[in-house]
Every structure is written in C-alpha cells, then in structure tokens.
Amino acid sequence: MPHHLLRLVIVAALAVSGPWPAAHAAADEEPVARVGGDSISRAKLAGALRKANAAALPEGPQRLQSEASVLERLVNDLLLRQAIARAGITADPAAVDADVQRIKTELASRGVAFEQLLIRTGQDEAGFREQIASELAMRQFVAARVTPEAVQKYFEANRRELDGSLVQVSHILLRPDIGRGEQGLTDCLARAREIRSRILQGELTFAEAARAHSAGPSRRREGDLGFIARRSLAHEEFARQAFALAKGEISQPFATPSGIHLLRVTESLPGSLSLARIRPEIEQRLGGDAIRDTIAEARRTTAIEVAAGVAHFDPQTPPDGGVPRRVIVGSNAE
Length: 334
Hints:
With 334 residues, the chain is of the alpha+beta class. It folds into 2 domains: 204 residues, Triger factor/SurA peptide-binding fold (Orthogonal Bundle); 104 residues, Chitinase A, domain 3. The chain is built from 12 helices and 10 strands. It has a 4-stranded antiparallel sheet. The protein has a 4-stranded antiparallel sheet with strand order 4-3-6-5. Strands 8-9 form a two-stranded antiparallel ribbon. It is globular, with a radius of gyration of 25 Å.
C-alpha cells in the first residue's frame, strides 16, 4: 500500500496517544485503566484530555462524555499496539532513522528547526522516535492485511457501490408525529411495515402506495426520485439502503432525519470507474476495517478495568450498538 494512504489510515489511532507507551506505567504514575497486562497512567490521560481540549470544559455531562471518549481512544490504541506486539511486528531502526531524517530535512527546507517541533508536541527526540517507530510498525501490520487479493475481492463484492453506478429509486416517505415522541416513531414504523406487506401481497402497487401514502413531493411522480449515485446529495443511510437493493426489491422501513422510508429500485446503470482508479479508496477502507476489527476482537478477549472515579463508556452501549452511549463514573471491569 502506498505510504501516504497508510498514514491516513493510522493517523486517527496516533493523534491522541502520542508516542508508543512503555509496557507498564511508571511506578509513580497512578493507573486510570488496566488493559490486559498494561496500564494507562493518570498523567497520560490528562495529557490526552488537554490535546482534545476536554480539560477546559466545565463540569457536566459534556465533559464526562468527552473524558469517556478520550479514555476509549487511549484504550483502543493500547489494544492495537498489544496486537501488533503479539504479531511480532517491530520497526526497522534504519527505517526510523530515515523517517526522522526526512522530517528534519523537510522542516529545514521551511526554515523550521526540529527542536521547535519537539517543543510544540511536548516530546524529546527519543519520544519522537518512538512515535515514528509505532507508526512504522502499525503500517506493516495494516499492509499485511491489505493485499492485492483483498483489494480485488472487495472491489468485486462492492462494485456497484464503488464504480460510479447509478440506481433509479422510488420511495414512500412517512413522517412520524413528533409531538408523540418515541410512540409516534413506533407507530410510523408499524404503518410503513403494513404498507410494505400490502405491496408484497399484491394488494396495491408501489406506485399506488406512493400516491396514497407518501408525504414527499415525489408522490406526484408515483414516488420516482430519478437516478442517484452512491455518493450524492442523498442522506448517507438513504443511499446505502438504495444501493443494497436489487432491481425491483423493496427495502425494509428505515429512518433518516426526513422521516421513515420505503425504497424500491426500478433501474440500474453500471458505472465505468476501474479498479485502478479507485484502488486508493479501497485500500483506505480495508486498512480502517483491519484496525477496527483488530480492536473489536481485542476488546472481546482482553480484560479492561477502569479505576474508580474515571469517566468511561458502559460496555453495554458500544459505539455501533444503535443506542445512546451511557457514561459511567466509577470502577468497571469489561
């Protein structure tokens, strides 16, 4: 994988954490979390909070949410580093030297001293070299999973989403009664399911249902919205649902900020973008997937304990769980 693409993939993992931590926190640093056999010190958490501007927030729910988010990133970063270490991946010292020298040369060409960079990032040169080493090791870890075969397979499995294809979409839009809160949404979903069932049973066509029930202006065109691209002005969930449908298939009801939708794809036009053209995007996606999958697996198999009084997310409300995340301030073991 090209150097610059891998840097994009790993930058999120390194942005908060800084240099690669020692295997164990220093004896005089109180741990705020234990992750397997390693720990995260209170000093490290405080530094990450300052970098994220969370330390300046007033006491209250927003600050607790920010603190929990920062701690989660630190835990994820440590889990990923542990996985890399278990895989036996280390950075080549010569490659670290070359990267550091390249950075020094680039800074000098801009009239910036390397020491100024160290001051701005709050590191000494040894810490900076550790950060470069961690980046190189992570790059190797990801590159081993983003092979030409994996890229080809991903392209074939997701060709319509990636190659510029267009789909012609008809939809039925139902608007929940927001004055009734959650019950209004529940009733609207039930109504959408009933309409879908009637269409599938042949009681009415999609076009008839759109004219009779849709709250959108496309009802005057039997629900037709014309052709859309995967990346278009349409809401992301709307486009994702549309491109998951085969021609003639009707979606399950789903929600966007506009309301509850039923979709039907009536036509599809193949795209012309080649694998060579979109390879960088696929590599970046696969790299991100590799990191997320590694962290998710590590969370399932690694004991994580948070110290009392430290804000963190309830593990029963994961980021992809579809429910609001709950912040706990207290001790917890995952």
